[in-house]
Specification:
Elements (H helix, E strand, L loop, with lengths): L1 H75 L10 H6 L1 H20 L1
């Protein structure tokens, strides 16, 4: 009988240690969950800030394109102004570029022939 009682006590001690170990592990995991939630909130705030910054960058790029278009439109409105590589001028007056470059080539050929 002493042997049975001792084995029962040993078993109870083992079970008690096991549950204590489980509770410690559970507490560690709960602490880790708390830390991860705090970190997650910080990262979400940072992400929101970066998203707002990205929106502002996009807005500024659109404004820059608009202003460039207005400036090129104003520059291209002058009759005698011919920019060498302007996209505004080339896109609107591509036929004029071909004619003017052809006229220059003819003038060069006539000066060499004379």
């Amino acid at each position: 009988m002493k042997r049975v009682r001792k084995e029962g006590r040993d078993n109870k001690d083992a079970v008690r240690r096991y549950y204590k170990k489980l509770k410690l592990r559970e507490a560690e995991l709960e602490d880790e969950v708390k830390k991860l939630r705090v970190l997650n909130q910080e990262l979400m705030k940072r992400l929101e800030g970066e998203a707002a910054m990205q929106d502002e960058v996009t807005l500024l790029k659109c404004l820059l394109v608009d202003i460039r278009g207005r400036i090129e439109g104003e520059i291209c409105s002058f009759r005698h102004y011919k920019p060498p590589n302007s996209t505004c001028f080339n896109a609107r007056n591509s036929s004029i570029d071909h004619v003017s470059s052809g006229d220059q080539n003819e003038e060069l050929n006539t000066t060499h022939q004379v």
